[in-house]
Amino acid sequence: MKILVCGGAGYIGSACTEYLLDRDFEVVVLDDLITGHRDAVDPRAKFVKMNLGERDRVIGLCKNEKFDGVMHFAAFSLVGESMTDPSKYFRNNVANGINLLDGAVAGGVKSIVFSSTAATFGQPEAIPIRENDRQIPINPYGESKLCFEKILKWYNRIFGLKYAALRYFNAAGATPFHGEDHRPESHLIPIILQAAAGTRDKVMIYGDDYDTADGTCIRDYIHILDLAQAHMLALSVPESGHYNLGTGNGLSVKEIIDCAKRTTGRDFKVETAPRRPGDPAKLVACSDLARKALGWKPQYESAEAIIESAWNWKQKFPKGYEN
Ligand code: UDP
After folding, report:
1. Would you state the CATH architecture of domain 188-219+249-322?
2. What is the pLDDT of residues 100-129, one digit of tens each?
3. Which among 276, 282, 284 is the best mutation to test ligand 1's pocket, defined by most ligand atoms within 8 Å of the CB?
4. Residues 6/30, Cβ–Cβ less than 8 Å
């Protein structure tokens, strides 16, 4: 099968590209390299430097290459930034994404897998979060992803384009070749590992007064290879659908820090800071539907295994994609 991976130079897209190539898929990576890294593109993939805003080029690529499937990871994903620059999020994550859908229709693509997010739920009405729970985003990032989920529904109804919207909870971990390298880094696990490696002087806990057992936020950390497996399965499922992807094990910020100290064998300074605006206290997925409908079986169920994989990558590539 020939797959177009949009955003294949990013954290999850690069891991998914590696996963597909290991399973004999043919992969074309499209990326504008605004946040992605050229070195993160698997050398076995064909690389096309393109922004999804380049409508004619996007449609031309889809018509010429005749992809069987599309995976759409290309998006901006910083909640805080989306609160100060909503235009950037709606233009890229919604408007530019429509060019890709039009290309998919024009090129006769059969199946599209879309990177959605737990942020489409906003403040959850219940934990664990199920697919049909109320979706009321509390920031433009989550809203942009929810808009795109709705647009997919219409393209399915009107053009028969089959889709799977995969709502990731907290993507984490690394493959032997691909890991997390955002500039600047804002995510918990890579920040902790920078502290463990001695390149950051301390970890700040954003709030220890939440309504949780130890007062810190609870998240559902899911390994990127498990996300990759779900993408591959979602390509070939016959019906369109929406799936939550997490392990179902909620872990607090303090639990992640303790686990990282144990796993790396390194100690580092930790301080408490004020809450980060827009952070819900708990986000944990119910992923029963993905297990049942996609036959998805996550392989990395423990925080130790997830953190260990990220730590191994960090030790192999201490400067991330700079080397
Ligand atoms: N967090 C933290 N310190 C940091 C970065 C993150 O305490 O330096 C917390 C954050 O408030 C959230 C959790 O760690 O509760 C996961 O944050 P991350 O940014 O990794 O992912 P998000 O849940 O925002 O998608």
Report:
1. Alpha-Beta Complex (3.90)
2. 999 999 999 999 999 999 999 999 999 999
3. 276
4. yes
